[in-house]
Design a protein that fits this description.
The chain is mostly helical. It is built from 8 helices and 2 strands; from the N terminus they run αββααααααα. α2 packs across α6. The model has no long low-confidence stretch (mean pLDDT 88).
Amino acid sequence: MSSELGLRRRPEGSPAAAERQPPDEVRCLGRGWPRADRFERLFWALVFLACAGCLAIAAFVLEPDRRGVGTHEQLGLPPCGFFDLAGGPCPSCGFTTTFAYAAHLRPLDALANQPFGFFVFLLACAATVVLPPAVVRGVSLFALTERWRWRWVVLGLVSAWLAAWAYKWHITVGF
């Protein structure tokens, strides 16, 4: 049909076809990385904005609560209902306070308050450094983690979170 209209089809391997398709790799930090599609770049840009926003709020809006919990109430949120119901902290109790401690350059207080919350804070800090060049250059972070043993990663993270919850329970109400 295209030959009837006087148009020539270019073979897939031709230079013009190669120009239309972006290369499979992106050069960043002196080496080649897998290329991200638009959806992935948008996803990581939103993750960056969320991390940067949380860090900014922790640094410039919040003051850590001396109780080790309840800092989120400064944002107009209600007190933890789990604490009232169960008589102890929820698995995430102290995360906001820990972020505030860490953002106010009190890492030992942050670590002592909620160890896993401090780990999440460090991940958020790392994300604000790693994500902008990855988004701008189009590096696929999903492809970089394809070979990870996700079952073990998730198991390790959940185990650490539960251990930190047990620690938080112990320092808050005892065993």
